[in-house]
């Protein structure tokens, strides 16, 4: 038989999940190989075979009910009507932006920063020698009609791992840096 074979690995993966301190593996056996040598079977499973099929495993996971509570970042926009700097939720579906070549995930939590930054609030929550000089300089500049502004911007970003099909129909995994905003804060 040439082509893709599909196996249900749910029981094995569940066992792996229960026993996380042990290394796990999958062993492929060929009971009806009719005299083929082990080297022939290995060659048939090799990604370099001209058939163009590269073995891979896709495992979909969901959080257990015990850990279903999502820890909110302290900078999340939770107070309705608040104008302070915070992280707003934004989910991007790859199909909505014509990234149909992405196999997994189907989308990601991008998020964005919004809100105003009160300089005095920022300086109180982030005291430093620079902050004190900055506040004094800002006071002097305001007297001349010029003011510095702080802005609400990302303070922590995370990477996104995607699985995609290339032009040769091969699966590839890549990390795209800084695709998701984790926290927001006021910056100078």
UniProtKB/TrEMBL annotation:
The keyword Iron-sulfur does not apply. Residues 69-187 form the TGF-beta family profile domain. It is found in: Secreted. Pfam families: TGF_beta. GO terms for molecular function: cytokine activity; growth factor activity. Belongs to the TGF-beta family. This is Inhibin beta chain.
């Amino acid at each position: 038989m040439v082509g893709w074979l599909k196996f249900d690995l749910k029981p094995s993966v569940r066992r792996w999940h229960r026993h996380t301190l042990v290394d796990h593996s999958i062993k492929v056996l060929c009971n009806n190989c009719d005299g083929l040598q082990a080297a022939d079977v290995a060659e048939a499973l090799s990604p370099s075979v001209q058939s163009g099929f590269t073995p891979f495993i896709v495992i979909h996971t969901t959080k257990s009910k015990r850990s279903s509570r999502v820890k909110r970042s302290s900078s999340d926009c939770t107070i309705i009507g608040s104008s302070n700097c915070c992280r707003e939720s934004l989910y991007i579906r790859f199909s909505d932006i014509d990234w149909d070549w992405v196999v997994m995930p189907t989308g990601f939590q991008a998020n964005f920063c919004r809100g105003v930054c009160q300089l005095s609030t920022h300086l109180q929550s982030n005291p430093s020698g620079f902050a004190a000089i900055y506040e004094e300089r800002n006071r002097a500049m305001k007297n001349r009609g010029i003011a510095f502004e702080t802005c609400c911007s990302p303070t922590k970003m995370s990477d996104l791992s995607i699985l995609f099909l290339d032009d040769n129909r091969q699966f590839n995994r890549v990390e795209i840096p800084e695709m998701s905003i984790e926290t927001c804060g006021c910056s100078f």
